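Extended Data, panel c. Modelled sequence:
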Amino acid sequence: MYNESLIGADQKKAQLAKNFEGIQKTVKDNPENINRISNETLKNLKEYISFNKDLACDMYMDVYSSLQNSDKLDRKDKKSLEKIKILIEEEISKEKI
């Protein structure tokens, strides 16, 4: 039973990492394709970056850059990027000094 829960946890971590990589790639390379981001995706993103602050900083820079060069983004894209930006800011601000 214990090993099964470890396997499940490892699978969940792997899935969260895969989702994070997909979102990060979209934010960096094709922000106009981010469209509307679901609350479930944001929840998973928050869970992943809470344990990977260094990766969150990289994604934050990509989000910031995409928002600065937002001429080809529509309202849904901008709103989704803003949600990601706020989520990352909240998670990073929890960091203890």
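DSSP finds four helices and no strands in the chain. This feature is highlighted in the accompanying rendering.
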